[in-house]
Write a structure and sequence with these properties.
With 168 residues, the protein is mainly beta. Helix content is 4%, strand content 43%. The chain has two domains: 2-89, no CATH class; 94-161, no CATH class. This is Sushi domain-containing protein.
């Protein structure tokens, strides 16, 4: 882990890229993330190909450690180095978030419980979405695909939470 301390610089990484629904404690440059009560911890492995649609699995641990690398991004770490997976927390009940509606002209959507994977028709973009505290979030931060995040502003988004529509 000493190597990672040297990578962590005093410039602050953007905390909005950390998953929602987590409690964060800090010990030097290392952040420890644990799930809020009522949320379950999941791990998402990075796909080797954009065509792969891997779904997260329950986390073997109840926490994860992250460090700010080069002042740019938070990276998950373990005793061997950079971890090639993401840790995040979802609602235990998948019905707490409004169902997602997808525009088939722009992308494909697969939903399993409180996690969804959206992939553009061209396959060049992929987003992992997860439900925490009844709200859909994008893994890695940012808004839902095509920049729409608030239900009131979702009329033109290809991916929208709408309770009155059926899942795709």
């Amino acid at each position: 882990l000493i190597v990672f301390f040297s990578l962590a610089v005093s410039l602050a990484c953007d905390p909005s890229t950390l998953p929602k629904g987590v409690r964060i404690s800090q010990n030097g440059p290392v952040l420890k993330l644990t799930c809020d009560p009522g949320l379950q911890p999941l791990e998402m492995a990075y796909a080797t190909s954009p065509a792969d649609l891997l779904f997260p699995v329950p986390s073997k641990r109840k926490f994860a450690r992250y460090v700010c690398v080069d002042g740019a991004t938070y990276q998950r770490i373990n005793a061997q180095g950079i971890e090639r997976s993401s840790f995040f927390c979802t609602d235990v009940q998948s019905n707490l978030c409004d169902p997602l509606e997808n525009s088939a002209e722009r992308g494909h959507l697969r939903v399993e419980g409180a996690v969804a994977i959206w992939q553009s028709v061209s396959g060049s973009q992929r987003s992992v979405l997860y439900c925490a505290h009844g709200v859909w979030h994008r893994l890695g931060g940012g808004s839902l695909p095509y920049g729409e995040a608030a239900p009131s502003a979702l009329a033109s988004s290809p991916l929208t939470p709408l309770a009155a529509h059926s899942l795709i």
